[in-house]
Write a structure and sequence with these properties.
Number of helices of chain A: 17
Number of strands of chain A: 0
Number of domains of chain B: 2
Radius of gyration of chain A: 22 Å
CATH topology of the largest domain in chain B: Rossmann fold
Helix content of chain A: over 70%
Distance between the termini of chain A: 25 Å
Strand content of chain A: under 5%
CATH architecture of the largest domain in chain B: 3-Layer(aba) Sandwich
Largest sheet of chain B: 6 strands, mixed
Strand content of chain B: 15-25%
Oligomer: heterodimer
Largest sheet of chain A: none
Shape of chain B: globular
Radius of gyration of chain B: 18 Å
Number of strands of chain B: 10
Number of domains of chain A: 1
Bound molecules: adenosine-5'-triphosphate, magnesium ion
Strand order of the largest sheet of chain B: 6-7-8-3-9-10
Structural class of chain A: mainly alpha
Chain lengths: ~425, ~250
């Protein structure tokens, strides 16, 4: 029985580690589902968990590259706060004076400003690490303190609110979703693209005369991928928008609200952002020279250098990318809260590192996947939300998350030793 | 042959690591189609000398001429531009990547979209490994899962794939079995006929006598001398290596 399952997994060409992580996630959901009499398994909760995970998950994909090259970034939480505060001040205090309140371009300028600011600060840290050879731990520990302090100076500690209405949509909420119809369209396109890529890759392999998976196995994988995407969309599309928000939305669209009218949320915009980021980062990791050099450098920095890779400049690029992703995460986090206070992003660096590490990124370098980091972020958020909904106190939540982190890494080490990977 | 401009001419090279003169005013040269053996005890400075040529180290003094022109080699990228390929003693493989990724590291084949073309690289790798080490089958595993000899085969394949004009081999057969070693010997003969110049570092006097045209011997960072292999006996070479003594009655370049 066990052997049959093993050969099936082998034939399908699935990564056992991926299965393990998804298994752990499902177990967490089921356990909390039982304890909350199904509340945890409601569309509403899945919607919330997906939105709450997005910001950390976006940063975790960048942290994979950082850790793969044997570095660490302790500054992302503070940087997220600093960017959030700066961009909030920009759209609350500066842009309305220059462009007029509610100008259509405010959100676009804010988005670009956030990403640019992150990339520039990240690149600077990367330069100090790569060219001045100060260890990443120290540089980013410095950044951790500097950005948190700088954040306070932006507004002398004042909370910035409310944010631009369109900008706010990037954080989710009742309005910040694709809506039902667009969500289905999104899901169908995503499913088709996934299947298309699998067919393309199969054709390429066959063209070079390599052995390919049996057709039935490929068929099952396509069904799982497409089915998973559509299942997710259908769950998001069965979470009704509450009455109050309905009234607001219908009014904004000039539709008359009647009792018994039901619209569903659909996929939240931050989740769409996360999916796009995850796909782009996966392509970078697997299909670009940049990605190849990241893994090569992590595996053997000396060999990478001897192969003509400019590992110093590579470090600059990796940290710039990490910074840009922190900018995106900052947009999501501040838009979701519709306000930025001096606490924004506190402890996020640890959540991000934990997500990457739970997702199988090895601190010794050279190994780690983007999907792992995203699942790691989902596992962390599910645990936290689950415990909160069961009524576990905050201190105990921290204890559980801490224990799970160590446990997950230990399992990963045992797994690696067994498989000799 | 001596009248020709040498392919590589390293003149008066020196480098020290914190007071240790690892290479101390050494001059060696190499002609097209020639194999020059580099010999010497452990720590004599052989690897350090060739790492200066391959761009891994920067010399503290001395000059390198390639085809008679002064060459500026500041890093491994520069060396690759002069078609210098190196098989390092440490192999310099990224253990977490598979054979094809290592073979093409830094020079990936790409698709028209600019993405790396793993399938094409694996196909090429299969081709070259079929010639070099037909028993090699582990194409999809990371090279950490390979044996020492298999890893060495990957490093050799990488050096010979990219049309090297100057090939540096730092103990290329140290981990190979007899059959694989024989194949590398044949490979060296074949590359020679293509006009490639080869620096071969080896501790095996027999190999050196068989494969090399000339041999340069180093001791404690200094060059003892360079001799035509046909002019000397095994014992002459041994006493150069161990005692640093030049053989009598033989032309010694130094
Ligand atoms: N990166 C380095 N830092 C400090 N010392 C070094 C370094 N590389 C080499 N050395 C020293 O330089 C000397 C020459 O070393 P090298 O590796 O060139 O010897 P070798 O002739 O290749 O020996 P072997 O036959 O053992 O490979 C040794 O004394 C070594 O300790
Ligand atoms: Mg050596």
């Amino acid at each position: 029985m066990q052997n049959q399952a093993k050969t099936l997994i082998n034939k399908l060409g699935l990564d056992p580690r991926l299965l393990g992580m998804i298994g752990a996630l499902v177990v967490i959901w089921i356990v909390f589902g039982i304890f909350t009499e199904g509340r945890f398994l409601s569309p509403r909760n899945f919607f919330n968990v997906s939105v709450q995970s997005a910001s950390v998950a976006v940063m975790a994909t960048g942290m994979v590259f950082v850790i793969v090259t044997r570095n660490i970034d302790l500054s992302v939480g503070s940087l997220l706060g600093f960017i959030g505060m700066s961009v909030a001040a920009l759209q609350v205090q500066v842009l309305p004076d220059v462009l007029g309140l509610g100008h259509w371009s405010i959100w676009i300028i804010s988005v670009f400003a956030a990403i640019l600011m992150g990339a520039v600060l990240g690149a600077f840290q990367g330069w100090v690490i790569g060219y001045l050879t100060v260890p990443a731990f120290i540089v980013t520990l410095g950044g951790f303190l500097v950005y948190r302090g700088a954040m306070w100076w932006v507004t002398k500690g004042q909370t910035q609110a409310p944010l631009d209405p369109i900008f706010r949509l990037l954080g989710g909420g009742a309005e910040g979703t694709l809506g039902e119809t667009l969500s289905w369209a999104f899901g169908i396109v995503a499913a088709l693209v996934a299947v298309g890529f699998m067919l393309l890759s199969r054709r390429n392999k066959a063209a070079h005369g390599f052995s390919v998976k049996p057709a039935w196995a490929e068929g099952i994988l396509m069904a799982i991928a497409a089915g998973g995407i559509l299942l997710f969309v259908s769950i998001m599309n069965s979470y009704p928008i509450p009455k109050g928000a309905m009234k607001r939305i219908t009014k904004a669209q000039g539709i008359e609200y009647t009792d018994g009218m039901v619209w569903n949320h659909g996929v939240a915009i931050p989740v769409v952002i996360l999916l796009v980021v995850a796909i782009v980062m996966t392509i970078i990791a697997r299909r670009t020279r940049f990605g190849r050099y990241i893994y090569a450098t992590g595996g053997n920095p000396e060999a990478a250098e001897l192969s003509g890779i400019n590992t110093r400049f590579l470090t600059v690029k990796i940290f710039a990318l990490m910074g840009a992703l922190t900018g995106i995460a900052s947009i999501i986090a501040s838009a979701r809260l519709n306000a930025v206070d001096v606490g924004l992003g506190t402890l996020d660096e640890l959540r991000v590192i934990a997500a990457a590490v739970i997702g199988g990124t090895a601190l010794s370098g050279g190994a780690g996947t983007i999907y792992g980091a995203v699942i790691g972020a989902l596992i962390m958020q599910s645990l936290q939300s689950g415990m909160a909904s069961v009524g576990v106190d905050a201190p105990l939540q921290n204890i559980v998350v801490g224990v799970v982190l160590v446990f997950a890494v230990w399992i990963d080490i045992v797994y690696r030793r067994r498989t000799g990977a | 042959m001596d009248k020709q401009t040498p392919l590589v001419d390293m003149r008066d090279i020196q480098i020290s690591f914190g007071g240790i003169h690892a290479v101390d005013h050494v001059s060696v040269d190499l002609h097209p189609g020639e194999v020059v053996g580099l010999l010497g005890h452990n720590g004599a400075g052989k690897s350090t000398l060739i790492k200066i040529l391959s761009g891994a180290y920067q010399a503290d003094g001395g000059e390198i001429y390639i085809n008679g022109k002064k060459a500026e080699i500041h890093n491994p990228r520069d060396a690759r531009r002069y078609n210098i390929e190196t098989i390092y003693q440490t192999l310099a493989l990224a253990d977490n990547l598979d054979a094809a990724s290592n073979l093409f590291l830094g020079r990936e084949l790409t698709t028209p979209l600019g993405t790396v073309d793993d399938d094409a690289m694996e196909a090429e790798t299969r081709n070259i490994m079929a010639k070099l080490n037909p028993n090699f089958q582990k194409f999809s595993e990371p090279v950490s899962a390979l044996s020492g000899g298999q890893r060495q085969s990957v490093a050799i394949a990488r050096a010979v794939y990219f049309d090297a004009k100057i090939l540096i081999m730092d103990e290329p057969t140290a981990a190979l079995g007899p059959h694989e070693t024989q194949m590398v010997s044949e490979l060296i003969q074949q590359l020679k006929t293509q006009g490639i110049g080869i620096f071969l570092i080896s501790h095996d006097i027999h190999d050196v006598m068989e494969l090399c045209d000339r041999a340069s011997v180093m001791k404690n960072g200094k060059l003892v001398g360079t001799v035509n292999v046909d002019d000397v006996t095994d014992d002459d070479l041994l006493s150069m290596i161990i005692l640093g003594k030049k053989p009598e009655g033989v032309a010694v370049q130094s």
